[in-house]
């Protein structure tokens, strides 16, 4: 990310978030009950949300790198979202799966859920911050002790 | 005797609330990600916000690596919250009506200042405990339903396809077990 961002960078991020959140409300993914109905095979609509969204964003991921070198507001190169595969993808995915299956809520949907008036979802958001904090502290220490085995904690 | 027809699952059984609210909502979610990617080149995910925001209050190296993006990630999240509120103030409140939106009957509706808001009836302990695991799992697993599920799958990333298959399968198993144990809602 270049430091000199375009003045429209933040407004565009905000606008994208609004459209994203409106879509999570309209699709009722902001409602844990509806996600749980999918996971319990009572309503398969969620598939249309996830793959519908992936197709639309997929068009951008496929087209933009071919027609432009760099994004206008950041100067960043257009790249696909490719992350290296390792065991963490499976372990983390499984932990996320247990949490998602228990609660029916994921991060983006939780933010939108708060927006539609679901104050109770603050329990889930508090849990997410707690979980993210716990793994961050644990992994920061693991990284530090890898780099300097005798270093102070 | 006429033999019973092979019991096929009808569309009404697979999609008791139709598909339009899901398809339209999904297109909007994708559009939000598309707008950000076209303008900035950033494949937006929602769960990094959890760690990037913790960098404001914690010096841990794991969070400090996100200092460069933490300001816009807060804006992205605030946008998602506001988008939810705009939906509540328009479609959910009946100010804007469309046959594409199926209201459904989950949770509880309540009104504040003429806006129809919605609240879940899923028990707080499920949300809190599930939330902790979501917080750990999305960050260890390099993405959530938007990062892996929307941007990663949209990028045809093998890592994301495996990630999505993993969390979908485990979530289905978990939800089925929880329901079988009689926990509801």
Walkthrough of the structure:
The complex is a heterodimer of chains A (153) and B (185). The model of chain A has no long low-confidence stretch (mean pLDDT 94). Chain A has one domain. The longest helix of chain A is centred in the C-terminal third of the chain and has 26 residues. Chain A is mainly alpha-helical and 153 residues long. Chain B folds into two domains: 109 residues, no CATH class; 64 residues. Helix content of chain B is 58%, strand content 5%. Chain B has eight helices and two strands; from the N terminus they run H-H-H-H-H-E-E-H-H-H. A two-stranded antiparallel ribbon of chain B has the order 1-2. The longest helix of chain B is centred in the middle third of the chain and has 23 residues. Chain B is globular and about 70 Å long. Classes of the chains: A mainly alpha (153), B mainly alpha (185). At the A-B interface, helix 1, helix 2, helix 3, helix 4 and helix 5 of A face helix 2, helix 3, helix 4, helix 5 and strand 2 of B.
Detail the poorly predicted runs of chain B: none
Multimeric status of the protein: heterodimer
Q: Biggest protein-protein interface?
A: A-B, 121 and 129 residues
What does the average pLDDT of chain A come to? 94
C-alpha Rg of chain A, in Å? 19 Å
